[in-house]
Description:
Layout: H1 2-8, H2 13-30, H3 37-58, H4 61-89, H5 94-102, H6 106-124, H7 128-155, H8 157-160, H9 166-186
Amino acid sequence: MESSRARSNPDDPRAGLAAADDARSRLTTGLRLPVGFYPMLAAGIAVQVGTAAWGIAAQTVTGVAVALAGAAVFLAVAALLLHRFSRINGVRVDGLASQVVLAAGAGASVVYLGALAVGIVAAFDSRWWLVGVAAVAAGAGCALGVRHWWHAYRQDPVAHARGPSPRVLAVLAVVACLGCAALLVLG
């Protein structure tokens, strides 16, 4: 009898928590990714990996500039996708930002690093077709990793929502670009 009165009382903390859980569930199931999210992400990563491989293998100031341009293209694509997501849904999901910008999932990270390594070695051997294959594999692998994370997030948002905020990611990107610019000037 006591518990049934507590549940119907709007001031009861359990009722508030249940309402919050219901609201989170409705929000999570209503979230949508922008049209073309995965192909755009894959293309941005492919450009970044391809230009990084060429730039590192060139070992020139132009090579570093090309690698930086590829990173800028990727960061612009990532920012656009996150902005479109936020505009469509009216919310930010920090875990999504870390998945897109950092390839934070274990599988996506392994695919990205492996493809980048293959691309760099292929570029040193002037096997440009293999650089292209590695770049496409990196883009597709990371996009699939984000897709896997997205489905897991929608099933259990509390466990998968963690990640650095977009501001932290932006600061990391600026520091990385400044470091590369310093290499350009000093190199």
